Backbone:
């Protein structure tokens, strides 16, 4: 199977047919507020079109118009040269336009086969032909190159990647001419991303056209033939991928030049006294961990999926408490048994899934920002409330009012509210698990600047990330985990190959050994 690391799948198609999908002047307003203005697209059979832009640029709105979720306020959509109007997603699907959203539309208690054929079940003598449904689903999965996914399994037991495959199988069962994919790799491990690449290649070889939305620029350059850039609801460019490089694409997306993807440390920032020390620390998930994290440091934690990165942060934070070894925080021996104890000791944890564990989406920005303080330090609530405006301003949170519900914010602003929620507790050590997952490049840069300021203020940051350029670009030191243990330490000048070699247990001349300090 081809892996993302060594594949370049952009097919450089030379379309020999007219566009399967043509969009002209599509505009969408909500209550008089224009969120998408005058969008044009031409999508040819077998093409992958990358749809990129910052959070709030209009990507999701355009996808939902094409999916039949929202009718356009103005403009036209043509499919195979014929005007179409979709008032419901089922209409779009029947016409050949399917969408795989980040929030899957699957029934957890039903099987893979039942989900694929929901509402279209094959029948025999008036009854659902379960055997035919399972057989046809198995054939669909095999046709996509998917091995080992049982059509009779209940969807609730599947991984995120497997559920995504079910959605794609459903689309192919509908003979989709166009499949839209919204951030399809946001929660996938590397080997799962490789399978998705392979599935996309299979689909495009059959003439299926793909609209691909992602914040991961590597995927855009790997997969896409042409890229459309949206900014503030307007289309700013549509160009062949061969005419773009990362610097130009970022400039189109954010409207300015990012001199570097990763800001330099604030002048004068230097490692100080130890803030977090582990010696022989372990539980049921990690073992024998020795590390020292100093004030003013950003230390990155890399490793393959399942290596124990998240589990290390959760052990330190008392989610799955340490059962052996020693832990010292700012010179005092501690072993938090609960997250509440960890917060009281001066720890903060930015979790990897802001929607599931980081925020109360239906609550206001103010309530989310004060949530941890109210729960753990109720006497500080008044002072924290007075500081909320300044904190959110420092984080450059863009919102109408503090009373606005967090669910209405873009992904980047939601992530900044997560940061505000924890920084309001004035922690000594900030644990960050995938701090920029699912946010655009502009928001990423803002979060990186926050991390640099935390280090300059004497905080210590321990960051887990699956994006190796992020680990290398932001870390003062890199710790690499393998099989629940620290495999070694690398300097910030290390290459991605050095990190991967240590993570996989392959000999590398750069790999460090012993305690990480």
Residues:
């Amino acid at each position: 199977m081809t892996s993302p690391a060594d594949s370049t799948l952009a097919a450089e198609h030379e379309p020999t047919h007219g566009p399967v999908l043509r969009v002209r002047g599509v505009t969408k307003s909500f209550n008089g507020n224009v969120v998408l203005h005058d969008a044009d697209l031409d999508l040819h059979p077998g093409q992958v079109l990358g749809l990129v832009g910052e959070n709030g640029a209009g990507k999701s709105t355009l996808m939902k118009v094409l999916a039949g979720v929202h009718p356009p306020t103005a403009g036209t959509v043509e499919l195979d040269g014929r005007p179409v109007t979709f008032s419901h997603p089922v209409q779009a699907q029947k016409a050949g336009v399917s969408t795989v959203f980040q929030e899957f539309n699957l029934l957890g208690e039903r099987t893979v086969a039942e989900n694929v054929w929901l509402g279209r079940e094959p029948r025999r003598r008036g009854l659902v032909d379960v055997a035919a449904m399972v057989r046809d689903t198995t054939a669909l999965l095999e046709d996509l190159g998917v091995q080992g996914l049982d059509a009779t399994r209940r969807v609730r037991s599947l991984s995120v990647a497997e559920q995504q495959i079910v959605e794609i199988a459903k689309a192919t069962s509908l003979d989709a001419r166009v499949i839209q994919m919204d951030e399809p790799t946001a929660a996938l491990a590397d080997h799962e991303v490789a399978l998705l690449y392979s599935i996309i290649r299979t689909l495009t070889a059959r003439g299926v056209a793909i609209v691909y939305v992602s914040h991961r620029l590597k995927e855009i350059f790997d997969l896409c033939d042409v890229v459309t850039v949206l900014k503030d609801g307007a289309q700013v460019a549509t160009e062949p991928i061969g005419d773009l490089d990362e610097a130009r694409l970022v400039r189109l997306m954010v409207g300015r030049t990012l001199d570097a993807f990763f800001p330099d440390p604030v002048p004068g920032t230097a490692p100080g006294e130890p803030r977090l020390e582990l010696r022989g620390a372990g539980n049921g998930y990690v073992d024998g961990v020795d590390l020292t994290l100093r004030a003013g440091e950003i230390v990155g934690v890399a490793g393959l999926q399942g290596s124990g990165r998240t589990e290390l942060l959760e052990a330190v934070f008392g989610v799955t408490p340490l059962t052996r070894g020693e832990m010292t925080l700012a010179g005092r021996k501690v072993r938090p048994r609960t997250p509440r104890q960890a917060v009281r000791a001066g720890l903060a944890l930015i979790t990897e899934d802001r929607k599931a564990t980081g925020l109360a989406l239906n609550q206001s920005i103010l309530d989310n920002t004060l949530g941890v303080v109210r729960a753990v330090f109720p006497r500080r609530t008044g002072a924290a409330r007075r500081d909320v405006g300044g904190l959110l301003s420092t984080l450059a949170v863009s919102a109408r009012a503090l009373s606005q519900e967090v669910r209405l914010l873009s992904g980047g602003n939601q992530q900044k509210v997560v940061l505000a929620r924890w920084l309001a507790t004035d922690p000594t050590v900030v644990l960050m698990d995938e701090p920029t997952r699912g946010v655009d490049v502009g928001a990423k840069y803002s979060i990186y600047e926050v991390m640099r300021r935390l280090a300059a203020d004497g905080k210590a940051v321990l960051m887990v990330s699956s994006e190796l350029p992020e680990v290398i670009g932001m870390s003062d030191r890199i710790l690499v985990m393998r099989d629940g243990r620290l495999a070694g330490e690398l300097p910030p000048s290390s290459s991605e190959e050095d990190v991967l070699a240590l993570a996989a247990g392959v000999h590398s001349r750069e790999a460090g050994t012993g305690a990480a300090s």
Notes: The longest helix spans residues 190-205. The two ends are 38 Å apart (CA to CA).
